[in-house]
């Protein structure tokens, strides 16, 4: 036998793995990252940089650059996300109007830009100007009559179908991951799951282009959710330029959390709401440092969007409102009723949409995504055109519903019967009886509401970029405006009732219907997404209505309570479960009295656990084990008899280590002994060189005993982001619990199909 001292001559060959080799520490597609290992690697990297910085000026400068790289990435994300959002807003504005007509002086002008640049436009006829022509005027020189209406109707449908077909074709051919809102997948990615290509350059490009097309087509969807995906694509691109983030998946996810905040910041013009949205809704790991950086990224993104000024009103948002009357305590009752409506709508939408998406996945319908998009677009355009409230873009509709009726408003919703003797300042118009226009608008809004509720169920989840924020807000805003007008007319005609007597005198401006629209929008958005704090902040940043924060809070809390009574899942969590992503939601509670031994593998009657021994297996044995199993890693024990645990080796790193050893080390053959100890084992003199793999061994894998309650195990998996946990008794290895085992067990305990927990 040869002892370790006689083998010193070959030590430099055996220990080549003490130097890092390519791809070590990376993960395969559709696998979960090891948060603890990523954290440990970043600590080691930081320690090394700090110690080197004392050696020379150049190393000190490099350490400063490393420290500032995070802020540079945030700056770049904010600049690109803000620019893309501004371009998308301008393009959507122009292409939406293109369905109805064209500007003769400059075809790239939207209707509003065309008329405001015209010298021949008066204020009363600001929507009619000679330079803007409808398609019927341009093609057959007719603006009125049945033939002009039919031609405009036909071209509206054709433009909508062209935009939708182009969008779904681009997604299908170039970037399949560009479909949907992206928020369920981003939540899953931020929890540690790897989906390669989901945040890639092609996805960024195609999602940006197709987002403009689908919103312009008039489909019942918004651009706000997809903008979060776009911003995260920007974050992924810039983090790949810095090794600090590109080589550490945990650090990369800190950047993506901040990018999500920047996405909401530019989607709604709500930087603080964006940070809270990232914290409350999408992020899994959100340290204080990420909070500051998210705030900075959201600030830069909002500043960039403000510089572009896409809405031409020097505001970050389209919905800016100014109400001139306070709200009164008696109005809390209708606000809470709107909250109840929002909760019920949220529950209805989630159940119907998930049922339809499940049908799409399990039937032949899913094989024809292009046809589905074309059919839904055709139905939407055909039904939407006759009703002025569904024909216009959803953002413009919400803006009109939020508006207070001033003296200069020309909307049907402001067609009240005026008192000829009224001599009041413009901003303080008293409550008035509704005119014919208001009643017409009411039944048109009722039809639009029913249409929006039904069509949104079938639109969300198609193979195109589709956000849910704006359609949900539109449903709530329409319901809220109708309730607001109802309360306003009740107060006008029955001001002597006890509920109105104290605060609504005749001739006073008591009720603001636009405020009810705002509260309804918040309630419906809360019912669908189950957001609370971030929702209220987004709404008051979105509208500038800081004084109305209490009605918004009341509606948001009520809608969440009502929706939670029917099921705890929001729309994003429901889609995560539908797609089978391995996501452990921190909001779920596990209260069952089971133990680790009930969940661990192997179970009774199953083959024994596949393990590696510390110094008795050959390269061929390990390669055979890897080939015959599909496990992500293998526990390493002293021997198969003792089963004393030494550590844990990842499958991918074993494969890479063996491959690199064969390429770089002479004498490594199939019957070479692999060892994970510090010193090589004693081997016969003529045996081939052994292979030392101690460097890739995790010497401190997380372990629990077989009697640990599953409640504790679930908590450990959630809070530490584990991939797997080993089960031991007195130091002997008994089994293993993976993240998927935990998810399957939780599904089983909730009487769901445990096999649904897999990436579909």
Automatic annotation (TrEMBL):
Keywords: Antiport, ATP-binding, CBS domain, Chloride, Endosome, Ion transport, Membrane, Nucleotide-binding, Repeat, Transmembrane, Transmembrane helix, Transport. The chain crosses the membrane at residues 68-92, 153-175, 195-215, 227-243, 255-279, 332-356, 368-385, 441-461, 468-487, 515-540. It is found in: Endosome membrane; Membrane. Its main location: membrane. GO terms for molecular function: antiporter activity; ATP binding; voltage-gated chloride channel activity. GO terms for cellular component: early endosome; endosome membrane; Golgi apparatus; plasma membrane; synaptic vesicle. It is a multi-pass membrane protein. SMART domains: CBS. Belongs to the chloride channel (TC 2.A.49) family. This is Chloride channel protein. It comes from Chrysemys picta bellii (Western painted turtle). The lineage of its organism: Eukaryota, Metazoa, Chordata, Craniata, Vertebrata.
């Amino acid at each position: 036998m040869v002892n370790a001292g006689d083998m010193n001559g070959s030590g430099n060959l055996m220990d080549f793995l003490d130097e890092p080799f390519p791809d070590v520490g990376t993960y395969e597609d559709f696998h979960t990252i090891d948060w603890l290992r990523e954290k440990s690697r970043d600590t080691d990297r930081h320690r090394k940089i700090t110690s080197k910085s004392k050696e020379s000026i150049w190393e000190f400068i490099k350490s400063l650059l490393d420290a500032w790289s995070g802020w540079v990435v945030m700056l770049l994300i904010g600049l690109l996300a803000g620019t893309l959002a501004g371009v998308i807003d301008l393009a959507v504005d122009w292409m939406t109007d293109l369905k109805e007509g064209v500007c003769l002086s400059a075809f790239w002008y939207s209707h509003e830009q065309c008329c405001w640049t015209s010298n021949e436009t008066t204020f009363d006829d600001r929507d009619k100007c000679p330079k803007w022509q409808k398609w019927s005027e341009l093609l057959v020189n007719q603006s009125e009559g049945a033939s002009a209406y039919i031609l405009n109707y036909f071209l509206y449908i054709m433009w909508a179908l062209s935009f939708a077909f182009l969008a779904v074709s681009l997604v299908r051919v170039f970037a399949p991951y560009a479909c949907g809102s992206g928020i369920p997948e981003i939540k899953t990615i931020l929890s540690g799951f790897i989906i390669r290509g989901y945040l890639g350059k092609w996805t960024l490009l195609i999602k940006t282009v197709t987002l403009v097309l689908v919103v312009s087509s008039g489909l019942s969807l918004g651009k706000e959710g997809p903008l979060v995906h776009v911003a995260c694509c920007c974050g992924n691109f810039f983090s790949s330029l810095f090794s600090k983030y590109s080589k550490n998946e945990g650090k990369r996810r800190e950047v993506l959390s901040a990018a999500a905040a920047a996405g909401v910041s530019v989607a709604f013009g709500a930087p603080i709401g964006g940070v809270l949205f990232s914290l409350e809704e999408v992020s899994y790991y959100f340290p204080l440092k990420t909070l500051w950086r998210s705030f900075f990224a959201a600030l830069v993104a909002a500043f960039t969007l403000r510089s572009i000024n896409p809405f031409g009103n020097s505001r970050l948002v389209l919905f800016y409102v100014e109400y001139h009357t306070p709200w009164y305590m008696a109005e809390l009752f209708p606000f809470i009723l709107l909250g109840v409506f929002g909760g019920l709508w949220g529950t209805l939408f989630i159940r119907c949409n998930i049922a339809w998406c499940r049908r799409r996945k399990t039937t032949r319908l899913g094989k024809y995504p292009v046809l589905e998009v074309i059919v839904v677009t055709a139905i939407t355009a055909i039904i939407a055109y006759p009703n002025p409230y569904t024909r216009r873009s959803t953002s413009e509709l919400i803006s009109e519903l939020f508006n207070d009726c001033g003296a200069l408003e020309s909307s049907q919703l402001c067609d009240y019967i005026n008192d000829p003797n009224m001599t009041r300042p413009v901003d303080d118009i008293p409550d008035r009886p509704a005119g014919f226009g208001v009643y017409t608008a009411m039944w048109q809004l009722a039809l639009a509401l029913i249409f929006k509720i039904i069509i949104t169920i079938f639109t969300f989840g198609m193979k195109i970029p589709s956000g849910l924020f704006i359609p949900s807000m539109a449903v709530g805003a329409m319901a809220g405006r109708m309730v607001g007008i109802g309360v306003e007319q009740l107060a006008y005609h029955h001001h002597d009732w006890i509920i109105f007597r104290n605060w609504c005198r005749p001739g006073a401006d008591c009720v603001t219907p636009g405020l009810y629209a705002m509260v309804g929008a918040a309630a419906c958005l809360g019912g669908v997404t189950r957001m609370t704090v971030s929702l209220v902040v987004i709404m008051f940043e979105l509208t500038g209505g800081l004084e109305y924060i209490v009605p918004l809070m009341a509606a948001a809390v009520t809608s969440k309570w009502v929706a939670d009574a029917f099921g705890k899942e929001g729309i994003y969590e429901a889609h995560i479960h539908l797609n089978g992503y391995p996501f452990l939601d921190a909001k779920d509670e596990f209260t069952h009295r089971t133990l680790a031994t009930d969940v661990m593998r192997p179970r009774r009657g199953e083959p024994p656990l596949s393990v590696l021994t510390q110094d008795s297996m050959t390269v061929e044995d390990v390669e055979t084990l890897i080939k015959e199993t599909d496990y992500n890693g293998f526990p390493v024990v002293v021997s198969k008899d003792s089963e004393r645990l030494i550590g844990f080796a990842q499958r991918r790193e074993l494969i890479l280590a063996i491959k690199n050893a064969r390429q770089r080390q002479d004498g490594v053959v199939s019957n070479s002994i692999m060892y994970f100890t510090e010193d090589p084992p004693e081997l016969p003199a003529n045996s081939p060189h052994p292979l030392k793999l101690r460097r890739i061994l995790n010497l401190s894998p997380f372990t629990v005993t077989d009697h640990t309650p599953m409640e504790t195990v679930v908590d450990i998996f959630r809070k530490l982001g584990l991939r797997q946990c080993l089960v031991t008794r007195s130091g002997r290895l008994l089994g293993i619990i993976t993240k998927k085992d935990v998810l399957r067990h939780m599904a089983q305990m909730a009487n769901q199909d445990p096999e649904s927990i897999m990436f579909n």
